[in-house]
Amino acid sequence: MRTKKELENFIFLHKMKFVYGCKICKGKNPNCKCSIRHKIAVTAYESCIPQDFWWINADDIDNNKDIFENTVKVYVKNMNKALNGGYGLLFIGDNGVGKTYFISYVLMEAIKKGRTTYFTTMPDLDCNIKRGFKDQEIERRLRLMLTSDFLAIDELGKERSKNNNNYMDSQIERIIKGRLDDNQPMLLATNMDLETLEKAYGPTISSILLGKFQIVMMEPGDYRAKLRGRMLKDMGYE
Length: 238
Ligand SMILES: [Zn+2]
Description:
The chain is of the alpha/beta class and about 240 residues long. Helix content is about 60%, strand content about 10%.
């Protein structure tokens, strides 16, 4: 989660570089592309979307392309219906298959449509809840972020292995259940299978998940290999 100060710093530095540094308008034209991109970047930063995924181009996707076309893009197209019905997506698959990539794509499209979003991982959420115990400002901001139009939680189930703490588990369950009950959509990702997930979160949450979520089984394949290929090329290592 970003503090108010971190956000202010980001806005200042990003504006200096990309708006006042714009080759076309030097920051003088508020309708220039640079200002529009600046606004999107600020919202993406505040939403904690990983920066690698801010400017995803649909043409770049070649892993799990069918899922992208038939589920992710359809979800984006029907975003308002998802918002009204509280419908979400649950991505299941190994690390590196592109779950975070697809979730970030949905959130960025939501931002472009003026929606509020928040991206967090289970370990991050766990950590921020604990920070909130001692810091009222953190507690207040986290509560606000968790009411965003679209909440994405990555690495679902990861906190279970290390917590062994019923209080924390119940806090996290309360957040998930609260959003489900209030018809607020979520985008979830896990490398657990459905059965393990059910054991971890209990039958109540699992059955609501099954009713409101499109479950997306990601095919194996490593998109990071592609990123690595780009890095090698960019840097001239090959
Ligand atoms: Zn400009």
